[in-house]
Write a structure and sequence with these properties.
The protein has 403 residues and is an alpha/beta fold. It has three domains: 175 residues, FAD/NAD(P)-binding domain; 120 residues, FAD/NAD(P)-binding domain (3-Layer(bba) Sandwich), CATH 3.50.50; 71 residues, FAD/NAD-linked reductase, C-terminal dimerisation domain (Enolase-like, domain 1), CATH 3.30.390.30. 22% of the residues lie in helices and 30% in strands. The protein is built from nine helices and 26 strands. The strands form six sheets. Strands 1, 2, 3, 4, 5, 6 and 19 form a seven-stranded mixed beta sheet that branches. Strands 8-15-9-10-11 form a five-stranded parallel beta sheet. Helix 1 runs parallel beside helix 8. The longest helix has 15 residues. It starts with 6 loop residues before the first strand and ends in a 17-residue tail after the last helix. Keywords: Apoptosis, FAD, Flavoprotein, NAD, Oxidoreductase, Transit peptide. It holds the Pfam family AIF_C. It catalyses: A + NADH + H(+) = AH2 + NAD(+). This is NADPH-dependent 2,4-dienoyl-CoA reductase/sulfur reductase-like enzyme.
């Protein structure tokens, strides 16, 4: 049995940024309240984006540098490596895999997501990157010249490939498309990124749909079309699977795989809130949507925690997302979908751009490529466009590329 007390004013299930921010908001609004954080991860909350960004490119590769110090700064009782297996909203209790039953006044589900895995078999040379333990494992495997096959040419796959190349690995990036990130960026940017990745020694292999991995003396990756590739290590970026089992088994209202929440991030169960990756919420600009990025976790965790402690704040926010790829970087809001019409505005030297993604006459998303401190303006542009106050011919003058 654990040494947790049997009941807390507030219980948070999950150990990411949303959990950290919720605990901070609760503690700020109700300093005397008792808080428990139950996390399945072996490590406490960290700034998780660093696992594919700063820890590979910065001066300090130790994940301890990204510790959020949640327990020390909020007074929460943090229990890591603790899986919650059942939620009973009527009794206001949760049950852990160890058999402990813990009562709560309010509960936050911030369970996030886990990597989609290839089959049931496990080999230590096949890695995923979601937790601190995953990062440590991958770091231990990589040496100068290690042949690494990264599978997945999306947001995380490209970041991981860039990080591994910086660490000295011999990287091949296998992806399903014609070019990397083709679902997000126009050809002007994807062609530039192709050159940049190749200049950093990364081999790009398109049209590669992974069918399986043979774990012999070396790993052999086989594509659906019969092609094969050898590697010492494979890192799979096959997308994420929402950790929604607890919510679903407790009978919470769901929309597909996502937990439905109201404007204050309350679920359909009395006393239960949800935040971060797992929720479907109402974006003030884009309506009902689901987002899996740290800015959303940060903001929704903050709002949920405030409301758990008695607040009545609406989650009235359009999250941003961002990435850095070698010397390039971007911030973005909304839908970056190349099936939409794209209006590109470039700086004179072609080093920076603002890309508007148009759904008819309305802006559905904005990419700020090497353009900084412009997210608030981008939100204003989207709002004005969607309200009919800004015509498409007026868009190029709204945000200066490279700002």
């Amino acid at each position: 049995m654990s040494d947790l007390t049997s009941s807390f004013d507030h219980v948070i299930v999950g150990g990411g940024v949303a959990a950290d921010m919720a605990a901070r908001s609760i503690h700020e609004k109700a300093p005397a309240a008792t808080i428990a954080i139950l996390s399945a991860d072996a490590d406490g909350p960290v700034y998780r984006p660093a696992l594919t960004k700063d820890l590979w490119h910065g001066e300090d590769p130790d994940p301890a540098s990204q510790d959020l110090h949640t327990a020390e700064e909020t007074g929460a009782e943090l229990r890591t490596a603790t899986s919650v297996t059942a939620l009973d909203p009527a009794a206001r209790t949760v049950t852990t895999a160890a058999g402990d039953t813990i009562g709560y006044g309010t509960l936050l589900l911030a369970t996030g997501a886990s990597p989609r895995r290839l089959g049931d078999g496990e080999d230590q040379r096949v890695a995923y990157l979601r937790t601190v333990a995953d990062y440590r494992h991958l770091r231990d495997l990589v040496q100068d010249g290690t042949r690494v096959a990264v599978v997945g040419g999306g947001y995380l796959g490209t970041e991981i490939a860039a990080g591994l190349a910086h660490a000295g690995a011999e990287v091949t990036l296998h992806h399903t498309g014609r070019v990397i990130l083709e679902h997000m960026f126009p050809d002007s940017i994807t062609s530039h990124l192709t050159e940049v990745f190749e200049q950093h020694g990364i081999t790009l292999v398109g049209g590669f749909r992974l069918a399986g991995i043979d774990a012999g003396e070396h790993l052999t990756l086989t594509a659906e079309d019969g092609r094969s590739a050898a590697a010492d290590i494979a890192v799979l970026g096959l997308g994420a699977q929402l950790a929604n089992d607890l919510a679903r088994s407790a009978g919470l209202e769901m929309d597909g795989d996502s937990v439905v929440v109201d404007a204050q991030l309350r679920t359909s169960a009395e006393g239960v809130w949800a935040a971060g990756d797992i929720i479907r919420f109402t974006d003030p600009l884009l309506g009902d949507r689901h987002v899996e990025h740290v800015d959303h976790a940060w903001a929704s965790g903050t709002t949920a925690g405030t409301n758990m402690a008695g607040g009545q704040e609406a989650y009235d926010y359009t999250p941003l997302f961002y990435s850095d790829l070698f010397d390039d970087g971007y911030e973005a809001i909304g839908h970056l979908d190349t099936s939409l019409e794209m209006l590109e505005v470039w700086s004179e030297d072609r080093s920076a751009a603002v890309v508007h993604y148009l759904d008819g006459e309305q802006v559905a998303g904005i990419l700020l490529w090497n353009t900084w401190d412009s997210v608030p303006t981008a939100r204003e542009v989207m709002a004005a466009s969607r309200a009919g106050r800004l015509r498409r011919e007026e868009l190029p003058a709204q945000i200066a590329p490279g700002g």
